[in-house]
Amino acid sequence: MAGSKAGAVRQRQAGGICYQLARRRVKNLNLRVRADGTVAVSIPWGTAAREADAFVLAHRDWIEAAVQRQLCRAARPLPDRDEALARFTALSRAVFPSFAPVLGGQMPLIKVRRMTSRWGVCVPAKRQITFALALYDMPPEAQLYVVVHEFCHFLVQDHSPAFWAEVEKRLPDWKARRRLLREG
């Protein structure tokens, strides 16, 4: 990309798939399909754009399916906020006892809001967990996974092996449950 600004985003096309290409400080080629259905590829510095084209072509079937999923998800009406809050509060109360000692016996504040790229966010410093409104439409097994995942952040704040060990201790089938979210 000689002559272009560092990190500038360029529109490209490969095999009929339009995508945004950006050079970033990454080690591998990264592919994302955003909530609005746009396709984005990040490539390491020094990687030729034609490699990104080949990468997009190699993942064409996955991209097309992901775009469809995102567009269908965007077309669905959001659930009632109060119903979603009631459900996630109930799930949180069910999970809370195994986390009570680390939380000093105090239930964290549970919130619900519209989010586009996460199913949940835990802020240990505020003793707060926020769940995505769209999680309400996911299978109950997936909902429980997200609740447990977020509560585990009160124990381990990153996604290190120690974190995943805590998740596994509470939900041995967490990988299958997470897959339900990704299949949407």
Automatic annotation (TrEMBL):
Coiled coil: none annotated. Gene3D superfamilies: Metalloproteases ('zincins'), catalytic domain. It comes from the Bacteria. Residues 95-183 form the YgjP-like metallopeptidase domain. This is M48 family metallopeptidase. It comes from Candidatus Faecalibacterium gallistercoris.
